[in-house]
């Protein structure tokens, strides 16, 4: 059965950076469908991105200060706190695939994949 999120993939269009209202997420967490843990995790990733990307400037991209806040608040156990500007610069440099000095959703997902993969390796060697 295809639910409302079956093909909607809300994250896809965010990478265009177009200031369009169509890109706004319609709070999928409030939906009545029962989602799997993995689906909930995916939505959590999307929501975490938008919670921080919407603070300043381009609503669909994380600038350095937003990225730093996201990592420090949402990934404290996996990545550790970013304290200095140099580290923020390096992280952004690593993530920013298209070179616009901001992290869009696709770049963010690649980052999450990287962290998840590193985390997986860590637990595998336990
Ligand atoms: Ca932003
Ligand atoms: Ca970018």
From TrEMBL:
Keyword Transcription regulation among UniProt keywords: no
Record's subcellular location: Cytoplasm; Nucleus; Secreted
InterPro entries registered for this protein in UniProt: EF-hand-dom_pair, EF_hand_dom, S100-B, S100/CaBP7/8-like_CS, S100_Ca-bd_sub
Membrane-crossing residue ranges in chain numbering: none
Any GO BP annotation: positive regulation of canonical NF-kappaB signal transduction
Primary localisation category: cytoplasm
Keywords: Acetylation, Calcium, Cell adhesion, Cytoplasm, Metal-binding, Nucleus, Repeat, Secreted, Zinc
SUPFAM superfamilies found in the cross-reference section: EF-hand
Gene3D superfamilies given in the database record: EF-hand (1.10.238.10)
GO molecular function, one term: calcium ion binding
Entry GO terms, CC: cytoplasm; extracellular space; nucleus
Domain EF-hand: from-to ranges: 83-118
Subunit details: Dimer of either two alpha chains, or two beta chains, or one alpha and one beta chain. The S100B dimer binds two molecules of STK38. Interacts with CACYBP in a calcium-dependent manner. Interacts with ATAD3A; this interaction probably occurs in the cytosol prior to ATAD3A mitochondrial targeting. Interacts with S100A6. The S100B dimer interacts with two molecules of CAPZA1. Interacts with AGER. Interacts with PPP5C (via TPR repeats); the interaction is calcium-dependent and modulates PPP5C activity. Interacts with TPPP; this interaction inhibits TPPP dimerization.
The protein's name in its UniProt record: Protein S100-B
Species for this entry: Chelonia mydas
């Amino acid at each position: 059965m295809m639910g409302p999120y079956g093909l909607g993939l809300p994250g896809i269009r965010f990478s265009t950076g177009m200031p369009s209202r169509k890109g706004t997420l319609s709070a999928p967490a409030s939906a009545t469908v029962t989602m799997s843990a993995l689906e909930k995790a995916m939505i959590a990733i999307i929501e975490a991105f938008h919670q921080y990307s919407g603070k300043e400037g381009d609503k669909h991209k994380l600038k350095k200060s937003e990225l730093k806040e996201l990592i420090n608040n949402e990934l404290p156990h996996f990545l550790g706190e970013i304290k200095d500007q140099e580290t923020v610069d390096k992280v952004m440099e690593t993530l920013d695939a298209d070179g616009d000095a901001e992290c869009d959703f696709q770049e963010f997902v690649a980052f999450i994949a990287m962290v998840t993969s590193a985390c997986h390796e860590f637990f595998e060697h336990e």
